[in-house]
Amino acid sequence: MTPPITSIGLLDPDQVKSVLGAAVLAPSTRNTQPWRFRCTTAGIELYADPDRALPVADAGQRELLLSCGAALFNLRTAIHALGAHPATTLLPRRDTPTLLAVVRPFAARKPDRRLVRLADAVPRRHTNRTPFEAAVIPDTVVAELRHAAEAEQAWLPRLDANQLDRLRDLVHQGHHAQVADPAFLAEWRHWTTRPRDSRDGVPEHAAGAMPPEEWILGNSGSPRRGLVDDSDPLVVVLGSFDDKQADRIRAGQAMQRVLLTATAAGFDASFISQPVEVPAVRVQLRTLLGGGLWPQVVLRLGRGTPVPWTPRRSLDEVLLKPDRLSA
Ligand SMILES: Cc1cc2nc3c(=O)[nH]c(=O)nc-3n(C[C@H](O)[C@H](O)[C@H](O)COP(=O)(O)O)c2cc1C
Q: Helix or strand or coil: residue 263?
């Protein structure tokens, strides 16, 4: 049963439900939804759910933190759109490392229309793995994407043609390392072949019944087309300046701000995670970026054909009881 939801700060119970509903629409690796929330009179707490980690593809739980960071950005943005300031503290208690953030919606704030636009985009954002049109994303939108990353203390470096070529090699290198590992494939299958009524995992209608290479590289359904042909107008790497737990939560917020900025501008995105999921390849990608940034996410941006939404667990499943102190 859902724990009773009461008012928190300026938000009435329905508003608390609606901001939690926005938070859980965040993207998460393999749609694991590795988050829990606890509502207290002091604020909304976000917990990592280590039981939903991917021990093979994400042994360091880096992507788990990115996913939770994305949920946190949705939560903050939804609170902001309701006219409250989402005062946020990351990792507030050393003795509870799963408690990633607490958000306190206590002070009124005139909504910033740019953030309201992003809040409106939350339910429209879906990972889109269909082929993208050969239409170039305008420079003004690229500038908005860069600004979105910087506003959340991350960076979208400009990649030249040589770097993009090298990135393509790293994608293949990461991919081949992953598919050669039976444990990776078993974990991948576990999350991509869920029962029809499952509320988590990547359903067939979103991923397609494709083997891993096509699914992961799958711009065009053909792995031969690579990453930088005409149908791939923009491939970006989002980097952070350090790689500690808080940096990864911030990078997840930046990733979500970039994704929602793209959605609001009418563009789609999908993830190309092999070069950041395989540690030895990630080191090479870091060098490729000049050595100063930690690569966190590689995204493909463009315009695909509409895709349906993927399922989410209900609030019952993600809410901790108010008296429970840790996830
Ligand atoms: C950190 C991270 C890494 C991801 N990596 C991949 C990936 O390598 N390939 C892919 O197709 N989708 C990837 N995804 C997308 C998720 O599968 C997707 O967010 C999830 O299935 C929920 O669907 P939605 O984004 O449409 O809401 C990733 C998402 C996150 C947050």
A: helix
- At position 208, the amino acid (one-letter code) is G
**pTM score above 0.90:** yes
Distance CA 95, CA 92 (A): 9
201 CA closest ligand 1 atom index: 21
Domains detected in the chain: 13-125 (3.40.109.10), 139-302 (3.40.109.10)
User: What residue type is assigned to position 143 of the chain?
Assistant: A
pLDDT in tens, 114-135: 999 999 999 999 999 888 887 7
The 8-class DSSP code of residue 320 comes to: E
Phi, psi of 3 (to 5 degrees): -60, 145
Here the tokens at position 29 are 């690796």
Sign of the dihedral through C-alpha 48, 71, 287, 150: negative
Between CA 193 and CA 42 the distance in angstroms is 40
Which residue's CA is minimally distant from atom 14 of ligand 1? 29
User: Phi, psi (5° rounding) for residue 12?
Assistant: -80, 170
Does ligand 1 lie within 6 Å of residue 132's CB atom? no
**CB-count exposure of residue 96 (10 Å: 0-12, 13-18, 19+):** middle
